[in-house]
Amino acid sequence: MIRVCDISVSKGRQLIVKGGSFLIRPGKITVLLGMNGAGKSTLLDAVTGQSGYSRGSISWDNAPLETLSVEELACRRAVLGQQVQVPFSIPVRDLVEMGGYVSGKSLTRVDLRKIIETALDHAGMSAFGDRDFTTLSGGEQRRVLLAKCMVQLNACRRTGINRYLFLDEPTANLDLHHQFKLAGLVKEIAAGQQIGVFAVLHDVNLAAQFADEILLMKAGELVGAGSPEEVLTRDNLMETLGIRSIIHKHPVFGCPQITALPI
Q1: Within a 13 Å sphere around the CA of 62, how many CA atoms are in the beta-carbon half?
Q2: How does strand 256-261 pair with strand 55-60?
Q3: Which terminal residue of the chain, N or C, has fewer Cβ atoms less than 10 Å from its own Cβ?
Q4: At what angle do helices 176-193 and 109-122 cross, to 10 degrees?
Q5: From first to last of its 263 residues, what are the pLDDT tens digits of the chain?
């Protein structure tokens, strides 16, 4: 379990994150919602060790974050960022294989190949292994990069160490079909492999359907935390996302379904 306790993050003299506390549990999906500029990506960077923090504490399975080496962190977490940029031609299978380079142990070629093919299969990209990554659609590229993350986590698997997947707006600029396909895949990964997932999203209905816990962030502060039913209220949505809304029960999933209204 990742335990974040009262952390603050500053950039220069500006306080970006102001005292956030929450847990990221193995096998569960935690989604962070907030407006642009709320500090979501800054918080994600601090929790993953990609940037520092000025106050509070972060522990990964009872180990202080600052005591973990870059190699140890690479074996515990994979990060899929906002930008999908591979500025050179490379076959999909070769790109996914790069996820295994962070492993501190020597894998046989056969074992690594098995991990790669399993990841491609789970991502629904087995038929694309020989394709040039740069020729794929945005949704296909995201699934390939997710497969690369899974290779990283599975190549480094160690007994007694939990694994975590961090996603920064993974469905941005994707059509609805690919949004739900990617979110469903992440849900399967979390439940099937007991991987803790922390995702920054903008789509409140997507979060309602796939998250186990939702965090609401406003101007650097976490102002709400709980299940989708507990957190996604009309007042909370107005306060944190600036939207008027009507909230119904989803006819299929039973989670909140939000209809945004004009301001």
Answers
A1: 2
A2: unpaired
A3: C
A4: 130
A5: 999 999 999 988 889 999 889 999 999 999 999 999 899 999 999 999 999 899 999 999 999 999 999 888 998 999 998 777 788 899 999 999 999 887 656 678 888 999 999 999 989 899 999 999 999 988 899 999 999 999 999 988 776 789 999 999 988 878 888 888 889 999 999 999 999 999 999 999 999 999 999 999 999 999 999 999 999 999 999 999 999 999 999 999 999 999 999 87
Q: 162, 76 in Cβ contact below 8 A?
A: yes
Using CA atoms, how far residue 13 sits from 10, 19, 26, 54, 222, in Å, is 7, 16, 35, 11, 20
Q: Which stretches within 13-108 are classed as H helix?
A: 40-47, 70-76, 92-97
67 phi and psi angles, rounded to 5 deg: -90, -10
Nearest-angstrom CA–CA distance, 45 and 22: 15
Sequence-distant (≥ 6) Cβ neighbours of residue 48 within 8 angstroms: 73, 77, 79, 166
214: tokens are 């939702």
Please state whether beta strands 55-60 and 2-11 pair in parallel, antiparallel, or not at all (unpaired): antiparallel
Amino acid present at 105: K
40/58 Cα distance (integer angstroms): 16
Please state, in angstroms and as integers, the Cα–Cα distance from residue 73 to each residue in 16, 81, 152, following that order: 24, 16, 11
